Amino acid sequence: MHPPLDVLLQRLQREPAVLVTVVAARGSVPREAGAWMAVFSDGAEGTIGGGHLEWDAQREARASLERVSQWAAGDPAIPSSWERSVALGPSLGQCCGGMVGLRFERVDAAAIPALQLRLEPARWPVALFGGGHVGRAIVRALAVLPFRLVWIDSRDEVFPPGLPPHVVVEHSDPVQAAVADLAPGTRVLIMSFSHAEDLEVVAACLRRISQYDDLPFVGLIGSRTKWATFSRRLRERGFGETDLARITCPIGLPGIAGKQPEVIAASVAAQLLMHTA
Question: So what's the pLDDT on residue 70?
């Protein structure tokens, strides 16, 4: 999968576009300030919310692209950027009732470095312990979401090739040693090949939370029976009920019962998005 920004930067090497950015948003609107869409002569990447608003912005941007020869000649009558406000009312056939401010700007290959810095989404850190089937499915599910992933396993040669640039793999033996090096604010997912390893990672996370309280979410794959066993063993190590309450097990949203790796991954991805505030 290729996120819209990657596709945009690749296409800009060959052809110009008009970048449409939401610069203001008031009331009920389809997208937040910062959302963007790049309009090419024969398509678009990204979205500012769909519907008539997006269609009308594409039409305006594409009409401007037809004047690219005048842009290239530096015609002062042809602006390289402009803005307009749009009320999402009956005139657009949308009943959102809010207002968006849109900025249109011509971009080409020369703008690639600046756009890469400007449009790269903020990514929340996630540590994934376990390179098995569910772990691989989670990596795929998070590929187009705003997460920065450290993927950790104690086994050699477990990670597949061709991972996205925001996925860093790490071999750690013992695997729980990697917990100390996680960035503050990391969301942790634990699903190693071994229940013994899972227990050690959970314990390491609880010790770090006790000391720094900087891991906002720690999720453990498994059944309620597994968690009951882990809870007993963790109490034997001196952890209390307040400590155990920091662990989410099973992971995933309640009500999603499928056990296929892709179903678990979708449920976990949604759960992570709920813990990004």
Answer: 58
